[in-house]
Design brief:
It is found in: Cell membrane; Cytoplasm. This is Signal recognition particle receptor FtsY. Its main location: membrane. One of its GO terms (cellular component) is cytoplasm. The chain is an alpha/beta fold. Among the domains are: 30 residues; 81 residues, Four Helix Bundle (Hemerythrin (Met), subunit A), CATH 1.20.120.140. 38% of the residues lie in helices and 12% in strands. The protein has 13 helices and eleven strands. The chain has a nine-stranded mixed sheet, sandwiched between helices. The protein is elongated. The structure holds guanosine-5'-triphosphate.
Amino acid sequence: MDTQLIVGIVIAIVVILALVAGAGYALNRRRRISLRDEPAAGTDQVTDGSQRQVDRSGGYKAGSGFSFSQGGAGSATLDRPEPPTPPTPEPVAEPEPAAQVEPETDETTVVQPPAAEPEPVVEPEPVVEPEPVAEPEPVAEPAPVAEPAPVDTAPALDEIAPTAGRLSRLRGRLSRSQGAIGASVLGLLGAGDLDEDSWEEIEDTLVMADLGTAATSTVTERLREELATGKVRSAEDARAALKRVLVEQLHPELDRSVRALPHADRPAVVLVAGVNGVGKTTTTGKLARVLVADGRRVLLGAADTFRAAAADQLQTWGERVGAGIVRGKEGADPASVAFDAVSTGITEGVDVVLIDTAGRLHTKAGLMDELGKVKRVVEKKAVVDEVLLVLDATVGQNGLMQAKVFADVVSLTGVVLTKLDGTAKGGIVFRIQEELGVPVKLVGLGEGADDLAPFEPEAFVDALL
Ligand SMILES: Nc1nc2c(ncn2[C@@H]2O[C@H](COP(=O)(O)OP(=O)(O)OP(=O)(O)O)[C@@H](O)[C@H]2O)c(=O)[nH]1
């Protein structure tokens, strides 16, 4: 074989290989699920070089039943017209001296989400100088590579249930509370003229449903007014009057948006707190799913270093939706893990960092102080936009006591009420808002990954009646 022929064959093989590699890379890219928002016209870029969409929608996202907003710079307090109770006391803990709160960076690990793995940089094939080939022989075996094997081994991501209309879809889950408030009070109201015994019975029913004495008195008083107008003549009217009164009591004017939208130069930071077993980790995971479904890039911070399995549990939630996680060694300083999570979130240009804190007992003063420290340390890096207190609806009065202790340590901006599916005491929602002066923003209605719903007073009362 002469040299020219050999050179010709070599060039042909190189060209074919280059084409095959190019086609494989393109196919591989197409198979990846990208959680990063494509920069659209009119969106901003963060300054660290990574591209991120900065929300300019004013907080509302069409098509999602959840409402997200951007935290006000320098403030994480609620913007509410008239809190129903006196404001919660100022945090009493002294600010930590800076020397004690330096992050222990080597204590934490960043686990990237499967879909956010850095793209393999494919070196461009060396350009082969097109030598003049006299007679390019037809290549005998054109190396037919039909299907380049996908190199992406990322696990399949979960499909997330639609976020719109969740509370209505999950209304059946409130059936236990339905009987308690709806059936009996409506039965009495619909019976016509009410004597004092009937009014007492209504009060008892509301107290039993955990409305608390203050809300019960107001509701009964308002119902008496409604009936006194003489306009309540049918069961239908009675239902409408009860609905009006209950919705009023839930203060529909309160801002219930979750402050999870990014700022121009940093992610939103959401702290999730509560005693052990109330559903903090589960709620953090469920919230991550909603945010991912809404097109946000989420980073989880496993600041629950108290319970080893909590970080694993959170990591699993993250892997299922493609959210990264920053976790620490068991027993690591939770404040340090939280700090590292926020630093990583800023560097990576994510939209929101969700920090799951340890489920500490509210009676352990030292541990409660630790939560205050987590917030103060994080705030050296970025403002905490949202402090969500997770409360278990099934524990009733006890939950309220816990809530008050938390409110003394960190100023709460919202409540997540979990396990409403497992109680007949849905009335606790009224009481929490009344006594804490903080809106219930989200409710947990089951153990399923998508059983988290935004709290909407009208839909909630509808579900009760
Ligand atoms: N029925 C029901 N169960 C829930 C709900 N939310 C959470 N759970 C369950 O409550 C249990 C505790 O949840 P976790 O998320 O581990 O609670 P935690 O507060 O993080 O607990 P610690 O890490 O120990 O502090 C789990 O079995 C959850 O599935 C809910 O809305 N309804």
